[in-house]
UniProtKB/TrEMBL annotation:
Whole sequence portion shown: 69 to 140 of 817
Lineage, opening ranks: Bacteria, Pseudomonadati, Pseudomonadota, Alphaproteobacteria, Rhodobacterales
Stated name of the protein: P-type Cu(+) transporter
Organism (species): Pararhodobacter aggregans
Domain HMA: 3-69
Family of this protein: Belongs to the cation transport ATPase (P-type) (TC 3.A.3) family. Type IB subfamily.
Subcellular location: Cell membrane
Length: 72
């Protein structure tokens, strides 16, 4: 089954940040689609329902140098 995780992201200041964050999210195994909204400072990620995915996605964003928390 597919799940959707929404992340609140801090530290994105230009359109290149958006591309970078989308790319790191799409690279996480199990992710099928990732879309970042710069103005809203959010990411919407579709992915397989694997254990721990929300935290893995947030960690991937942090590793790229941005702040991330799981939005509810
Ligand atoms: Mo733009 Mo984002 O010059 O980390 S890529 S600020």
């Amino acid at each position: 089954a597919e799940d959707v995780t929404r992340l609140a992201i801090g530290g994105m200041t230009c359109a290149s940040c958006v591309s970078r964050v989308e790319r790191v999210l799409q690279k996480v195994p199990g992710v099928t689609a990732a879309s970042v909204n710069l103005a809203g400072e959010t990411a919407t990620v579709r992915h397989l329902a694997l254990t721990g995915m929300p935290e893995k996605l947030a960690e991937a964003v942090r590793s790229a140098g941005y702040e991330a928390r799981i939005a509810t």
